[in-house]
Each structure stands twice: as C-alpha cells, then as structure tokens.
Write a structure and sequence with these properties.
disordered N terminus, 2 domains, four-stranded antiparallel β-sheet, nine-stranded antiparallel β-sheet, 19% strand, 538 residues, alpha+beta, Glucose Permease (Domain IIA)
Length: 538
C-alpha cells in the first residue's frame, strides 16, 4: 500500500490500537509455538493443493416444470467435493480452514435472507423433495430468515463457514443513502481526492465521482470499493507506492484496463459474479489462479461469497485465506475505515423481505404494437454476471442499429430519477434514491423525445424510443432490469420478472429463456424471428 496521508484521527487511533494488540498476541503465540515445536507436539495445517470438484458454474437441479422442447441442454447436478492436502506446510488462519465432512446423516440449516428452496437444494447438492422443515416451506418463493430446514448430508469438504460481510455492505443498499462519498474522500486527503479522468458519459470526472458512478451502475457498495482501493493500493489516505499501483489500483494488470473506472468496474463485476451466482444457484465453487478449487459452504450468505470470489481473481489460495481470515485481514481493515458493518446491517436487512412482491407491471410498449422478445435473462449491467435483465425490440424491416419511431412506455408508475446516456430509471416510491424500494432501469433509450429527469410517469406513459445508445448493442432494442433496495432482482427466481402476465424464465445460457403466460410460451431470439413476436392488449 502507498504512503498514507492523515487518516481521520478516530480511524487512525483504532487502526494502531488494533495493530498493537495483534502484535502482542503474535508475540505470545510465537513463544508458545516455539515451546510446542521443541516438544514435538505441533502438526502443521496444510492448504489444499487440489480439489476434485464440479464445474465452476452449473445449472441448478431445481424441481421446476420440464424445460420447453427447444431447451435441450442437460443441467449439471453438483456433486460433493474432496480435498487433497499439499505436502507444503502452510498454516491457515483458524477461521479460514477447510471444513471436513460431517458424519451426520442430516444437517440442520437455518435459512438466511434471500434463500429459496430451489437454490438451497443446489447449495447442499440434494433434491428439493428431500428437504423438510417443522414449518411450511414455500416451494418457489423466498423463505423467511432463520427457518429451520432439515437436509440430507451429501457434502464433502467445504470452505470455512465464517460470514465475512453482510449483504448490505456488498450491494448498493439503503445503508449507503447517507454516505457522502465526496466528503469522505476529501477528508481522507489521499491521491484519490485529486484524481480526475475523462469518461465519455460525464467528461472530466473526479475520483470520488468515478467511485459513485461504478457503485450506482453496478449496484455495489461504495464503502467496499473505497476500502479495497485503499487496502490494495493506498489511494484513499495516501499515494500509490509505485507505477503499478497507480495504473492498476484494484490489482488487475491489463493494459486495456488502465484507469480507476475500468479497474473499479472490473472489481465490482467480480463481486457481483460471486454474489448473484450464489444467490441464483449458478456458482458453487471458488476458483483460484493456481488451479485450486474450493467448494463454498452452503451456510454462507451471498455477500460473503461475493467477497470470496472477487479476492480469488488476485490471490492464490494460501494468500487469499490470509487476506480474508488472517490477523491483518481485509475485514479488519474495512472496520478500521468504516466501523462495524454488522451494526449498520441491522437497520436495513433483510434487503428483500420474504413477503416482498413485484408491483404490477406491463409490457414496455404501446397497445397493439408488435415487438419481439429478443433477450432472455442476462446481465443487468455491462459484464456483471447478474441475470436480472430481459430485452425487447420493435418490429422493423431494418436490422442493426437504426432510429425507431416506436415508443417505449412506463411499465410501472413512479418518478424519473435518471434520464441520460441511454438510461431512464423509474423510482416507484418517488423518494429519489436508487438504493430504496423498487426501481426499474431502461437502457438504450434514444436522446430524442426521452422523458426529462424529475417527471412523474403513470403506467403506459411514453418515456422515449428504443435505440443503441447507452452501451454495447448490435441492434435497436430496450433492455429492462429491476432492483429492490439497491439489489438487482434476478429475472427468474423467487420474484420472477412479470409483465402483463408474462413471466420470464431463464435458459441454460444468458440471453436464452422464454416467457410464459398460462399455456403460451414465447422463446427469446436475438434475431427477432416471427416466433418471438408479441403485443400488448391489456
């Protein structure tokens, strides 16, 4: 990390107090360890060298309806993993040690916020029908936190069960509403406070604003971005220690990603990949640069998995364990900068309560107009692997990007809190925050006739024309994604994306999928074929 400028006094005092305490504990531990070694009583704990495991991303083994005939790929059902010990003695932090398999036939699991029965079954590698509970279990919806589930034990070795960060400290949650990024950065007084870079969407942009943009667009907590930026490169309180820390502040060395925005977006994408991959049951393991693979403990929350996943892109297993679970861990550093995340979480979690329902929404185009369903569930923003978005394209005899006279309309009522750079965001509550309640993101809305910022829209009101503006696009269309309390809501899951009665279903791959309404099925196809066409008649 770079040389630090003045850290706020209270934070600095906490940091050095904790450091002194750790040094004392380490000194005592060293003496004890020496005595034990001399007595021949110590046996090293080994880091795993390889793990026999399932593919890193798998389709779930959910008991849902049979896939429509066009979806022919067979889902891969996860199996238990085993750990083979290395011959190199690398002591692991106690909280980060591999958990050996239990001899119990059944496991008692108390649900965490965001759990659903299909995903829990994937996490534990069991069939849905084999999970029981003293209480009634919703077969498809969200399960209340702390409900007891009795689950057959099919697991082998797994990661540690230690929860690292609450979900609300990973996502763009309500706890960020009163966090002033610019004020924090200015007070810290480090390199970030004077940094500026050119962004196509905003021109010359300050370092604090870069962090704010990435946090908002990727729906990642800005405290997490700032903490890792300081932890890895010393940008917040000090200055980068060398050219590499200056050019690649989040640690991803790639000439094509040589600035703060691209580095922060890369880190945010990796966090979201783990967070939502776990939330949706598509990711069951952590992969490391040295080829090792670690089965994720099913008791963990999505926030913890998001952090584990992002660190795995930078560190081999042994260093990864020290960074997350050691005496000088990132979590200790995080608390030094921002106090206890678990205390903040108490006022905002669960982010999506079990009784949450999607407000009624309509298809985003005018009545009796023919559009095509061109994209099944896929990434909500850029490369972040969050299958929260679906796409529609207007009927046209032109291909590729072209100007369209068709109108995109408001699927729900609310306040327009963002309008620009191809984006429109509707806030149902009208409080002006993307971190609270239901919000609906539209992407690729043309500048011409786009609804102004601050407009209150009712269901069916015109908000603009579809286009290719606002990001990568191969053809004129509109991209929609939902958030609740700042968390992306997967299009297929306990709260399925439902528009005019049409419910989204995910395919095996991103952009595949279909819409169902009663006995009707419409398959997604980016080519806007006849079979993808639908119209709104409500």
């Amino acid at each position: 990390m770079g040389d630090r400028r003045s850290m706020p006094l209270s934070a600095r005092e906490r940091y050095y107090k904790r450091r002194l305490q750790r040094m004392r504990r380490l000194a005592v531990a060293s003496v004890c360890l020496t005595v034990l070694i001399c007595g021949g009583l110590v046996y090293p704990v080994f880091a795993p060298a390889s793990i026999i495991r399932e593919e890193s991303q798998v389709s779930s083994n959910r008991e849902t309806e049979q896939p429509p005939q066009q979806m022919t790929t067979t889902p891969v059902i996860p199996e238990a993993t085993s750990v083979v010990e290395s011959q190199t003695a690398i002591p692991l932090p106690t909280q980060g040690r591999i958990v050996p398999p239990s001899e119990k036939s059944y496991l008692l699991y108390y649900t965490t916020a965001g759990d659903s029965l299909p995903v829990v079954s994937v996490h534990f590698g069991v069939d849905i029908k084999d999970i029981t509970s003293p209480q009634e279990i919703d077969p498809t919806g969200l399960i209340p936190p702390n409900q007891l589930l009795i689950i057959p034990n099919n697991l082998s070795e797994t990661s540690a069960k230690t929860k690292l960060l609450p979900d609300s400290e990973i996502t763009y949650s309500p706890s960020t509403v009163d966090f002033d990024i610019k004020a924090f950065v200015d007070e810290a007084g480090g390199y970030l406070a004077t940094y500026r870079q050119w962004l196509q969407s905003t021109g010359w942009t300050s370092g604090a604003d870069v962090i704010a943009i990435v946090a908002r667009d990727y729906s990642v907590n800005p405290r997490l971005l700032l903490a890792f930026l300081e932890y890895h490169s010393g940008w917040v309180y000090g200055t980068p220690i060398n050219a590499i820390a200056k050019d690649y502040p989040m640690g991803y060395i790639d000439e094509a990603k040589k600035d703060l925005y691209l580095q922060a977006a890369w880190f945010a994408s990796n966090v979201m990949e783990g967070y939502y991959g776990w939330r949706e049951g598509r990711r069951l393991v952590i992969n490391f640069p040295d080829g090792q693979v670690l089965r994720i403990a099913p008791e963990l929350n999505a926030g913890t998995v998001g952090l584990m996943n992002s660190f795995s892109y930078l560190y081999d297993f042994s260093e990864w364990a020290l960074k997350l679970y050691g005496e000088e861990s990132f979590l200790s550093f995080f608390e030094t900068m921002f106090d206890s995340p678990w205390i903040r979480a108490q006022s905002v979690e669960p982010l999506i309560p079990a009784d949450t329902v999607q407000p009624e929404m309509i298809l985003p185009f005018e009545i009796n107009k023919i559009w095509a369903f061109t994209g099944g569930p896929h990434a909500a923003w850029s490369s972040a692997d969050v299958w929260a978005a679906i796409d529609f394209a207007p009927s046209s005899d032109q291909t590729g990007c072209h100007e369209s006279d068709e109108w995109v309309v408001a699927a729900m009522s609310g306040l327009v809190i963002r309008s620009g750079n191809g984006v429109v965001v509707i806030d149902q509550e009208g409080d002006g925050y993307e971190q609270t309640g239901w919000t609906l993101l539209y992407l690729h809305i043309a500048t011409k006739d786009r609804v102004p910022l601050g407009t209150w829209v009712e269901v069916g009101d015109r908000i603009g024309h579809p286009s290719c503006e606002g990001g990568r696009s191969t053809g004129t269309h509109v991209h929609l994604a939902r958030r609740y309390n700042g968390e992306w809501v997967p299009a297929d899951g306990p709260l399925p994306f439902t528009l005019s009665g049409w419910q989204a279903k995910a395919g095996v791959e991103a952009y595949q999928g279909w819409l169902t309404r009663g006995d009707e099925i419409i398959y997604a196809n980016t080519a806007s074929t006849y079979e993808t066409q639908l119209s709104r008649n409500d």
